[in-house]
Amino acid sequence: MRFIHAADLHLDSPLSGLRERAGEQADKLIGATRRAFEKLVDFAVDEAVDLVVIAGDVFDGDWPDHGTGLFFVKMLARLNAAGIPVAMIRGNHDAASVISRRLTWPGNVREFSSRVPETWTLSDLGIAIHGQSFADRAIPQNLAAGYPEPVPGLFNIGILHTSATGRPGHDTYAPCELRDLLSKGYDYWALGHVHTREVLCEEPYVIFPGNLQGRHVNEPGAKGFTLVTVEGGRIRQVETIPVDVVRWARIVVDVSSASALDETCPLIGRALKAAVDGADGRMLAIRLVLTGACPAHRALAGDPERLEAECSSLALQAQGDVWIERVDVETVAPETASTASEGFNDLVQLLHDVRTDPDERTVIRDALEQGLGKLPAGARSKSGLEDLAPEQLERILADAEALLLHHLTTEPVQL
């Protein structure tokens, strides 16, 4: 008997502003969550698996229309036609109180109640599945504590959407300790909510499979589902099956040897080619991070438009499907850097004094906070400036200094 354990599909997860930034590649990114689930269904049908388990967050939130639900029904109907049952629960993103629209699922689907834990027995497969959906987005209580006893003589699977003991980047929902899960005596725990694959225990297996498709740079690497093979009531094999169609990556390139922007290109190009070679033919969405103390710092930070164009050009030359999501310049000017004249040195010193003077930094920070406070809801978070921590403010000031000095040294003075 083989079953698929998946979670956190987040179908049609909104990616605000992506079409404007990604251009012709936007459609691939926007449709990635659907195509990843299609690949799961293709695998299930082609391999004739016996069961599909989905541990919450099928949807990213309320549907803007019925299109998202209809796509899901279409995929469930394919599994139904192949005789594959589906056990699913709702998580915090698609809790019963969150999704206002409803569709009737095909007959092969069992969606577990949000009121009390339930058990679904599939006698022909020798399986008992226990689960409970989220009634509301925020579930502070330990749902696992109320799960029923295992059914004797059957392979018992628990489905739970939970933050467990807490994970960075994930809100605390239905918290529980590992001992709470182990005490139930189930043969397998199918968890959801955490988007990075994690095996909490192997006797019995307690697994977060991660999400099917990364949605941003903080969800990098291969994504997919877990395939579990059971023989004689015991787990014989646990496999990770990647189905992501777009792979996110944060690539750090040390450009300390470069004295000019042109000299960074071979370094960046090699890093992009290596990423393409390791992407298994998938589209890559890459955030480039340039580091190192180098004479090219002023040109890199001072001319972001040309830098981004050069990086996009290098992506085209990497012979893969690559989108440069962003270029972060974290280089610094070497301490030995010299300036052109005494007057220019005075300007550099003035800029340095502004950056290091606590009172000046406070004035600048207050002005930035006032401007950021006028941004539309969500825009500040997407800019990465939700918290103007000291290191973020330092990077903003350093970039502003490099931008000013670059233009003063490269643009002709108009008399």
TrEMBL record:
<feature type="domain" description="Calcineurin-like phosphoesterase">
    <location>
        <begin position="1"/>
        <end position="196"/>
    </location>
</feature>
<dbReference type="InterPro" id="IPR004843">
    <property type="entry name" value="Calcineurin-like_PHP"/>
</dbReference>
<protein>
    <submittedName>
        <fullName>DNA repair exonuclease</fullName>
    </submittedName>
</protein>
<keyword id="KW-0378">Hydrolase</keyword>
<dbReference type="InterPro" id="IPR041796">
    <property type="entry name" value="Mre11_N"/>
</dbReference>
<dbReference type="InterPro" id="IPR050535">
    <property type="entry name" value="DNA_Repair-Maintenance_Comp"/>
</dbReference>
<dbReference type="InterPro" id="IPR029052">
    <property type="entry name" value="Metallo-depent_PP-like"/>
</dbReference>
<keyword id="KW-0540">Nuclease</keyword>
<keyword id="KW-0269">Exonuclease</keyword>
<dbReference type="Pfam" id="PF00149">
    <property type="entry name" value="Metallophos"/>
</dbReference>
<dbReference type="GO" id="GO:0004527">
    <property type="term" value="F:exonuclease activity"/>
</dbReference>
<dbReference type="InterPro" id="IPR014576">
    <property type="entry name" value="Pesterase_YhaO"/>
</dbReference>
